[in-house]
């Protein structure tokens, strides 16, 4: 479901943060073009341009009705997602299962937007099917695995952090969030509880707040204040927006997103979408964590 949800996170960042990450989807398409052969680059460029246009059409719908769509985004979680499912159906299902949370006018707006999105998605699917190849899948997998291979950043106290962060843990739980994201803030205390629970197992929780990129002091101060108010003790980091991890963050799924990283800096399994204050999400994440720890023990 990555292609269908990545622009949700980009849109949310644009509305709530006014970050330059708004170009994340376009940057992703540019990177894709750079991996293709010279012979196919011209045709691919046209296809990518059309995809960008279609994504922007969907983003504009979200922008036009930002208040009600932000409510929907906050209700999404991993247990709802079907990576092989229809995106419009996914949105419709989220709305339907939470319909008592919306007014009649809001439901009318959402359902009209969803039908428009359904038509746009048909065009997107056709273009993406043309662009899909086994080579692209291999490159995407390699890219994901190398995100943290040369990692660097600073914690909010200014202490330098590098990829030894990961080599020192059997598993590192990396949570991507931003200060203006209510579901992100709502799960912070649970993440702190998780950090305490997995320390003895060789694990650690680390937060990456996307507003604090490039050492943004104002954003770091605001994020630190929120963390303190929630009793959070685990490390939160500021990273370079142009780094591999920074670029990865601009393309992640709907916020909050949590991933697992093994001792070698490889991302393991699928991202966790939604807050772990949701019991189903918490239980699913703990199961994944235990699996990574067991694999680490076996490989020693």
UniProtKB/TrEMBL annotation:
InterPro entries assigned to the protein according to its UniProt record, in alphabetical order: AhpC/TSA, Thioredoxin-like_sf, Thioredoxin_domain, Thioredoxin_ResA/DsbE_sf
Compositionally biased intervals (Polar residues): 26-39
PROSITE patterns xrefs: PROKAR_LIPOPROTEIN, THIOREDOXIN_2
Annotated signal sequence range: 1-27
The keyword Kinase is assigned to this record: no
Pfam families: AhpC-TSA
Ranges where the record places region Disordered: 26-48
Domain Thioredoxin, first and last residues per copy: 142-291
One GO MF term attached to the UniProt entry: oxidoreductase activity
Alphabetically ordered keywords of this record: Coiled coil, Signal
Domain of life of the native organism: Bacteria
Classification via Gene3D superfamilies: Glutaredoxin (3.40.30.10)
Coiled-coil blocks: 110-137
Protein's UniProt name: Thioredoxin domain-containing protein
Organism: Mediterraneibacter butyricigenes
Native organism taxonomy: Bacteria, Bacillati, Bacillota, Clostridia, Lachnospirales
């Amino acid at each position: 479901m990555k292609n269908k949800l990545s622009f949700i996170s980009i849109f949310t960042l644009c509305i709530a943060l006014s970050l330059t990450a708004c170009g994340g989807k376009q940057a992703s398409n540019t990177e894709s073009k750079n991996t293709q052969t010279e012979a196919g680059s011209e045709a691919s460029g046209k296809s990518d341009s059309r995809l960008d246009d279609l994504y922007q059409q969907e983003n504009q719908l979200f922008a036009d009705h930002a208040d009600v769509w932000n409510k929907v985004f906050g209700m999404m979680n991993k247990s709802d997602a079907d990576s092989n499912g229809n995106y419009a159906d996914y949105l419709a299902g989220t709305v339907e299962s939470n319909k008592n949370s919306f007014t009649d006018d809001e439901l009318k707006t959402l359902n009209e937007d969803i039908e428009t999105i359904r038509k746009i998605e048909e065009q997107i699917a056709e273009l993406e099917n043309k662009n899909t190849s086994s080579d692209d899948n291999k490159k995407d997998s390699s890219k994901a695995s190398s995100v943290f291979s040369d990692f660097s950043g600073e914690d909010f106290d200014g202490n330098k952090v590098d990829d030894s962060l990961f080599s020192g843990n059997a598993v590192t739980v990396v949570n991507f969030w931003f200060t203006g994201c209510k579901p992100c803030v709502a799960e912070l205390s649970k993440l702190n509880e998780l950090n305490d629970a997995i320390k003895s197992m060789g694990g650690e929780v680390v937060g990456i707040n996307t507003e604090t990129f490039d050492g943004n002091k104002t954003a770091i101060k605001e994020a630190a204040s929120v963390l303190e108010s929630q009793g959070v003790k685990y490390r939160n980091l500021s990273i370079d927006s142009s780094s591999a991890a920074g670029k990865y963050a601009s393309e992640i799924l709907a916020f909050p997103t949590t991933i697992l990283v093994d001792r070698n800096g490889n991302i393991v399994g699928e991202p966790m979408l939604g807050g772990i204050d949701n019991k189903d999400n918490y239980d699913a994440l703990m199961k994944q964590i235990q699996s990574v720890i067991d694999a680490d023990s076996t490989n020693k």
